[in-house]
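Annex B. Sample input.
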Amino acid sequence: MSISQLAQLVLPIIIQLMAVAAIYFHHKRKVESDFDKEMKQLRQLLLSGKLDKQKFLLIKNRLKIDSLFSEQSDILENIFKDEKIDSTTYVRMKDALKLSMNQKLKKNTNT
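Annex B, continued. Sample output.
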């Protein structure tokens, strides 16, 4: 097999892979999480002077905690749906997660 034949075989595959990668990264960039959207709005409020820095940091930390709780709840729910844990374990873990998040929220508001 000569180099020109190899190039004719490999080049179209490389072009297709590059096109798929470009589409993937373009789509990924367009999809923003709720946390990212809310943070963008908060930054705009901070820069416009409608929100002071202390309040901004408080809301930012609250959003981080809420986002983390949501992610962890989804993971826990998926584990339960996959039947890797039983219902009593799910309820105990969910309660422990809520307790942990409430403690973080209290710590966040006290600082």
